[in-house]
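Example record for the data management plan.
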Amino acid sequence: MIEVAVIALRWLQYSGAVVLLGVPLFLLYSFRGGDGPNLVWARPTLIVATTVVALGSLAALVAQTAVMAGSLSEALKPASISFMVTGMALGMALVARAVVAGLALVAIVALKPGRVLWTVLATVGVIVTTSFAWTGHGAATEGPGGLWHLTAAVIHAVSAALWLGALAALTMLLLRRTTPDDPAIHRALRGFAGLGTLAVGLLVLSGLGNSWFMIGPARVAGLGTSLYGQLLIAKLVLFALMLVLAADNRFRLTPMLGSVLAGGEDPRQALQRLRRSVVAETLIGAVLIAVVAFMGTLAPPSAM
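Corresponding structural encoding:
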C-alpha cells in the first residue's frame, strides 16, 4: 500500500512540476508578440500546480520514510523524519522542492499576471523539474559517465515538462474560449508548434542517452523480460501516439484553422477537431507521466 502511495505521489509531483514549468513558458513564448487572449484561468491553474508540488513533496517525504523505516507509524516519528531529511539526498530534495514550490505560491499571490510572474514561475519550474533528475536514476551512475547521464536526465525531464506543460496550457485555452474566431487561438497554436518541436527533439536525444546508461545495447533484446522494460515499451508507445497527434495538429489541423480564419468562414468545426485532438494528446500525456512515476520506483536493467 505504501508503495502505491509513493507512485501516486510521484505522479502528482510530476504533474504539478509539468504545469509549473510548461504553462508560464507557453504564455511567454506564444503571446510575446501580442496581448493574447483572456488568461483568467492561468493564475488558479498555477496555484493548484504549486500547491500540489508543495503538499505532494511533503507527503512523499512521509511515504518514502515509511518505505525506509518499514511502516507508517515508524515514519511519523520525529527521529525517522529527521534522519530522512538530514541524512538522505532524497529527503533533502523533497524538502527543498516543497520550499521552492511554496515560494512560487507566494509569487503568484504577490505579483500581477504578466511577463515578470511567468518568468519567475518558469525559473522555479526548471528548478523543481531538475530536482527529479538529481535524485533519480540519472544521478546513480558512477564513474566518468555519471555527469553525462545526469545531464541527459536533466534535459529529458525539463524537455518533457516543457512539452506536456505547454500542452496543458493549450488545452485550458481551447476548453475555455468563448469566441472561436479570435486569431489569438491560431497564434497560440503556432507558438505551441515551436515549443513542441524543440521539446520533442530534446526528448529523443536525451532519451537515447538515458537508455544507453540504464539499459545498454546488449540488453535491448531482452527488454520485455523485466517489468522496467515492459513499462519502457509502454512509455515509447504512448510517446509515439502523442507524436502522431502532435504532427496531425501541426501540419493539418492548425493550418486548416488558419485558412478558415483567413477566409472569414465559421471556425467552430475546425476548432472542435483541434480541441478533441489536443485533449486526447493531453490525456495520453497524463498516462505517460503515471508510467514514468512507476518506472522511477524500479531498478533499471543496468542495475541488475
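Summary line stored alongside the record: DSSP finds ten helices and no strands in the chain.
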